[in-house]
Amino acid sequence: MERYSKQRELILDVLKSRKDHPTADMLYKEIAQKMPGIGIATVYRNLASLYKSGKIEKIETMQGDPDRFDGDLRPHIHLQCSKCNEIYDIFLDEEENKQLNDKLAELTKLINADFTSSKIVLKGICKNCKNKN
Amino acid sequence: MERYSKQRELILDVLKSRKDHPTADMLYKEIAQKMPGIGIATVYRNLASLYKSGKIEKIETMQGDPDRFDGDLRPHIHLQCSKCNEIYDIFLDEEENKQLNDKLAELTKLINADFTSSKIVLKGICKNCKNKN
DNA sequence: CCTTAAATGATAACCGTTATCATTATTTCA
DNA sequence: TGAAATAATGATAACGGTTATCATTTAAGG
Question: What pTM, to 2 d.p., does this model score?
Fold first, then answer.
């Protein structure tokens, strides 16, 4: 089974300390300063295992673009701005979260499947880009 | 501006004739039988331009996995089965479509952004896999 | 026709990610 | 507490889907 490692602990700590949605490589650059010699493969491996065990979130955006990671597990969805590509959090309160999941579960029933989760990425124009040009 | 090509026309026809969600390579294999000599790059290029011009849909699933394409433009979302990885359509009637988009637009307002579209992929267990083992 | 430039086909390159493998570190239990 | 067992690491090669490059072909318009 899984064994403790300083590397995994640090990767999780660094991700949780950030408020943005870094790529594996962005994390690697920050982590490598605190633990020189760590390999990029270790970062990828541990991000995958942390995601698998539900300790972090993974955001798959546009094809080709690298995955982004999120250490914040509070219920929220993401919006990616079509202009600047920045990813924003939209946090949901209990009520909103229930409403959305109920609706998605309802739609899932239409094909006699069992709903387990969803990947939602909204596209739009963010606050900042709206006010430019 | 864009110029007509037999290749693009065939690519669109083949995609529209299918009821599944083929990858670029799956389409290439079928197309190459009807037009021997066509290049794989042409398939990728035209799928990209057809998507850009709104004539087809693109479904980005799990990272690493190839993109899938959809010639059906009726409002619908996708569910990917966690067991068999198959992608299913969930067609929405006008009412359901409006309800869902209204809710997403409402959430978008929470961060003062303008909603334009969404990428939703539901995860769950499909009808077939539920009844197995 | 003839010219212009978009589209094609072949293939090299790209890049995020994963596999491989020898080495190191953690856990277990004698 | 000190081997033995084996998971994790670091370095790097390999992978695979997709895109870039470039010479050639082809569509469109006068």
Answer: 0.87
